[in-house]
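Changelog-adjacent note: as of this version, every example in the card shows the full chain rather than a window. The one below runs 202 residues end to end.
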Amino acid sequence: MTIISAMSSTSEYEKIPEICEKLSSMIRYNISSSEDFGNLDGEILHAENYLELMKIRYEDKFQYSMSYVGEIQNCHLPKFIIQPLLENCFAHGFRNKEFPWQINIQIYCTEECWEVQIQDNGCGISPQELENLKLELFKMRSRDVRMLMKEMKIGGLSIKNVYIRLYLTYGNHMLFDIQSNPNGTCITVGGNYENTCNGCGR
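Full-length structure tokens:
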């Protein structure tokens, strides 16, 4: 909405229909179903709409790429896994980073599993902060499931929320990894098709 407001009084007002279309698509995805699961195609489109809006906002100061390895399978996975991780790049990774900003997304699909890798060129996470985060995430595996679900509703769509929902869906078959250095951060998420929607495949 901020982008629309800013462009309405400039020579770029012709971009407003495109912005509204992408925003409408994102809203439809948000309210399309009361279910907590979607498909990989829907997740990718939702993420791409978000990135396109950021591209319009920051213009040449931000670039992104998206590549595929393998054919996307018709699988179900928790909704809102990819876009929150992209949003995290802007909220944290790019916070103290000069332009240009870059996000590279790689999507891997096999007959057994799906995997999405998100890499930015942000300021990275310090070794101590990364170690603390990984330890905190790992400790969540021993927490009471009902308490974790309650925390998801309170905590919003943060990295911890994404981690919890992947674990509740795939258990030990989930894929969640964070690597970081001063040149950026890479987050990889994924899961095994056989364990999708099983509650928790521990």
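Structural remarks: The beta strands are 37-39, 62-69, 76-78, 101-109, 113-120, 175-181, 184-192.
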